[in-house]
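INFO batch 0412 | record 1 of 1 | parsing
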Amino acid sequence: MFRHVVMWNYKEGFTAEENKANALKVKDSLEGLKGVIPEIVDIKVYINDFDSSTKDIMLDSVFADEAAFLVYRDNDDHKKAGAITKDVLDNRVAFDYYE
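INFO prediction complete | emitting tokens
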């Protein structure tokens, strides 16, 4: 399996309440891609509630292989979800690997 993990921080300028609402919006938009994009084996978004972490949101997604991930990456529905993410999150870090 090919795993794609991405982490972000909240963008500056939002209140704590806005960050919480934005995080749920990102979670819903990304997790909502399962079933829409058949190449997704699993996809979950985690919202951090601990001060000990340096990132606020984490995407953990699984694909059969890198080719399936590339189909997901280039899919228009994924790009729409990505636009929502880019509006409210910053400092993206990604890590891809085979497990």
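INFO post-check: The radius of gyration is 13 Å.
INFO record closed
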